[in-house]
């Protein structure tokens, strides 16, 4: 899509906030109805409904099933934060970058009217700030107060997410929202009454630990964060002490200057959003999960639906907590202040999302159903319909990649196999299904590799190009490490979600010396390729994080890094202007055809695959025969390689079982590849 058109569409859609539910008879018509949902489930004539939380979740699950309702929910990935009102119902597509300590909050609390002494129960779920009406205050000593626990995750937009994924998601929202003549903001005012609210600083606290030596690393002292009794920066409406903030807050716009927020926090440097990849954009969020948080782990990709919390009061409270901590021991104060700064950033920079519904995503391709394993009618119909036209799609994709690889059809075959490869299981420590390809013979001092990566970017949902220069290897942070002072996981380049395409460009490597950090980075890349794991650095120990990353290496000669398969490029043409050639190649492909390529490459990753007993016996006999003819020509590793090639060759044709025909084709491809490498060895002895 033309970026100018994309910008115009973005400007137009931001004039509205689409209503999240369908236009059926049971839809929510206005904010008043939305406000009543949780409150209505929470209380009954007989008191608190014990099943209110379950009813709220079930309600939204049902609503989101109606007529493409998820497309109506404003997304933080597409809509800038300052266009969303506080307490809106929103969605967010993200990766779990870090997991913070559990947080305790007032699940149920009681307010007392100072004049009438009337008592009212409130729920603290889905809130950062306790709410009470005029002349009310929170009774912290009430026996009906209930303390509950929630888990906080630090989530960032999916690293390396392709532009086309963002565009398709955005345009999808635009098309659905445009069909309305008027729009409603789905504010979740069950949790805030902006005109009458009186605010208590916080409904929660996180365990604050004294910093410890290595010997004391496992001993954790829990202590609530200290808060000031009064907030002098607020407009006074009475002398109320304790936890109440004695102001009469009005709803503040979320577009408050981030610069003012930073200065109010006395930050010495701009807040680091801790994105794994450089140049990433989008909001990072503190995600608060109330149920089943054990299902989620670091690096998982999630789609969240929940309540957006951007109350400016949070920044004021956190600043006051830092002031209170300054009364402690200076060394301890420094550590606590750093942890507080990271764990409680300004809400204008890092909004909070209180999760109502969450699901782990298999993939982020917006052209496919979110879950491909479900045997639902729509999903099965979509998959079967696409599989029926798979053969022409593969043929067109092969032709497209052949042109991208300068006329080399054999290299295009292997690139297809690489792009649909995935780790399907692990046997002990060995990841089965990984298929790292090294494309050698790439022209040096050319823009070929850069433009080849652009082609890959247009095909896969997430990717990153690592320019393997001496400077980058010595200075970039590849491995995530634990910062104990801030109590957070500092991201690195290799903190990537599953199915990310990592393109390593070795053609830029020149003579030079790797320092200690550079050697560690090369080792980390080698471990990623060989074992599909990254060892995160926790100072006193390494923690192994398994991954599923497709690594594609471009190089002039054989790569310095290990690879499962080396294919030497044999260009059939060398265009005088590489940029013009690649641009014309992309512009010649119809958007509908490009979308079919994208569906093809994502869908085939998730197909089941098996080998019948009959074919297994035929493969074994074939292997024995090959060993008889030339024992040195094929080893057990070569057989494994043949089986991997045969697997992805079958899947690329839409076949979920290995046939004799595909086995012979796999042998033919491998024979051609080996012959080409042998030929190159004769030309250049150090090639192999």
Structure characterization notes:
- The protein is α+β, with helices and mostly antiparallel strands and 688 residues long.
- The chain folds into three domains: 52-177 and 274-311 and 347-361, OB fold (Dihydrolipoamide Acetyltransferase, E2P), CATH 2.40.50; 383-607, Rossmann fold (3-Layer(aba) Sandwich); 610-687.
- It is 34% helix and 18% strand.
- The strands form seven sheets. Strands 3-8-11-13-12 form a five-stranded mixed barrel. It has a five-stranded parallel beta sheet with strand order 17-20-23-16-24.
- The longest helix is centred in the last third of the chain and has 24 residues, at 660-683.
- Keywords: Nucleus.
- Residues 199-242 are annotated as: Disordered.
- InterPro entries: MCM_complex-bd.
- Its main location: nucleus.
Total of DSSP H or I helical runs spanning 4+ residues:
18
Rg on CA atoms, Å: 29 Å
Q: Count of DSSP E strands? A: 24
> Going across the major beta sheet, what is the strand order?
3-8-11-13-12
Tell me the CATH topology of the largest domain: Rossmann fold
Measure the end-to-end span.
42 Å
> Could you name the CATH class of the largest domain?
Alpha Beta
CATH architecture of the largest domain: 3-Layer(aba) Sandwich
> What structural class should be given to the helix and strand makeup?
alpha+beta
- Give start-end ranges of low-pLDDT stretches: 1-36, 178-201, 207-269
- Would you tell me the overall average pLDDT? 79
Proportion of strand residues:
15-25%
CATH superfamily of the largest domain: P-loop containing nucleotide triphosphate hydrolases
Overall tally of structural domains? 3
Helix content: 25-40%
Keywords: Nucleus
Protein name: Mini-chromosome maintenance complex-binding protein
Pfam family, one: MCM_bind
GO molecular function: chromatin binding
């Amino acid at each position: 899509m033309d970026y100018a058109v994309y910008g115009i569409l973005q400007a137009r859609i931001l004039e509205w906030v689409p209503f999240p539910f369908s236009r059926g008879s049971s839809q929510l018509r206005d904010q008043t109805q939305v406000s009543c949902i949780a409150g209505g489930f929470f209380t009954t004539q007989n008191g608190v409904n014990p099943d209110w939380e379950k009813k709220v979740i079930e309600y939204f699950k049902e609503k989101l099933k109606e007529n493409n309702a998820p497309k109506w929910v404003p997304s933080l990935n597409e809509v800038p934060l300052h266009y969303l009102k506080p307490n809106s119902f929103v969605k967010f597509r993200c990766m779990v970058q870090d997991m913070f300590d559990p947080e305790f909050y007032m699940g149920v609390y009681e307010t007392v009217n100072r004049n009438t002494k009337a008592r009212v129960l409130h729920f603290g779920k889905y809130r950062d700030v306790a709410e009470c009406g005029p002349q009310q205050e929170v009774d912290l000593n009430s026996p009906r107060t209930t303390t509950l626990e929630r888990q906080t995750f630090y989530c960032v937009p999916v690293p390396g997410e392709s532009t086309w994924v963002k565009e398709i998601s955005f345009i999808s929202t635009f098309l659905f929202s445009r069909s309305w003549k008027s729009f409603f903001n789905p504010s979740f005012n069950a949790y805030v009454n902006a005109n009458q609210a009186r605010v208590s600083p916080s409904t929660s606290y996180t365990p604050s630990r004294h910093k410890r030596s290595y010997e004391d690393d496992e001993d954790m002292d829990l202590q609530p964060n200290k808060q000031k009794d009064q907030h002098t920066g607020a407009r006074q409406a009475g002398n109320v002490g304790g936890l109440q903030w004695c102001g009469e807050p009005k709803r503040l716009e979320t577009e408050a200057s981030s610069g003012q927020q930073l200065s109010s926090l006395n930050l010495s440097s701009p807040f680091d959003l801790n994105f794994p990849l450089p140049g990433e954009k989008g909001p990072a969020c503190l995600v608060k999960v109330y149920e089943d948080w054990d299902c989620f782990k670091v690096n998982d990709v999630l789609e969240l639906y929940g309540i957006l919390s951007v109350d400016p009061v949070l920044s004021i409270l956190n600043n006051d907590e830092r002031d209170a901590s300054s009364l402690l021991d200076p060394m301890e104060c420094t550590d606590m202040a750093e942890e507080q700064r990271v764990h409680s950033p300004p809400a204008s920079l890092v909004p909070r999302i209180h999760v109502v519904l969450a699901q782990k995503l298999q993939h982020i391709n917006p052209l496919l159903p979110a879950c491909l394993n479900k045997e639902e009618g729509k999903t099965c119909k979509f998959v079967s319909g696409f599989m029926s036209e798979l053969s022409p799609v593969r043929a067109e994709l092969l032709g497209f990649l052949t042109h991208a690889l300068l006329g080399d059809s054999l290299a295009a075959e292997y690139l297809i196999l690489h792009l649909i490869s995935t780790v399907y299981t692990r046997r002990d420590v060995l990841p089965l299904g990984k298929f790292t390809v090294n494309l050698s013979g790439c022209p040096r001092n050319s823009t070929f590799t850069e433009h080849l990566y652009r082609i890959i970017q247009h095909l896969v949902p997430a990717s990153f190009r690592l320019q393997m220069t001496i400077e980058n290897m010595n200075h970039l942070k590849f491995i995530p490490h634990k910062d104990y002072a801030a109590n957070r996981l500092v991201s690195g380049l290799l903190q990537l979600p599953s199915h990310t395409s990592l393109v390593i460009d070795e053609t830029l490597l020149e003579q030079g010396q790797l320092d200690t950090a550079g050697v560690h980075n090369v080792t980390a890349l080698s471990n990623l390729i060989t074992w599909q794991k990254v060892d995160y650095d926790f100072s006193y120990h390494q923690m192994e994080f398994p991954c599923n990353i497709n690594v594609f290496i471009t190089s002039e000669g054989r790569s310095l890094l290990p690879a499962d398969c080396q294919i030497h490029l044999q260009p059939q043409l060398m265009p005088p202007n590489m940029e013009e050639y690649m641009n014309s190649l992309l512009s010649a492909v119809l958007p509908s055809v490009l979308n079919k390529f994208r569906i093809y490459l994502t869908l085939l990753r998730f197909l089941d695959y098996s080998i019948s007993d009959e074919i297994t016996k035929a493969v074994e006999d074939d292997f024995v025969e090959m060993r008889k003819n030339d024992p040195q020509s094929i080893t057990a590793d070569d057989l494994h390689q043949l089986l991997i090639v045969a697997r992805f060759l079958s899947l690329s044709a839409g076949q979920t079982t290995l046939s004799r025909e595909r086995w012979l084709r796999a042998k033919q491809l491998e024979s051609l590849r080996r012959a080409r490498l042998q030929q190159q060895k004769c030309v250049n002895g150090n090639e192999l």
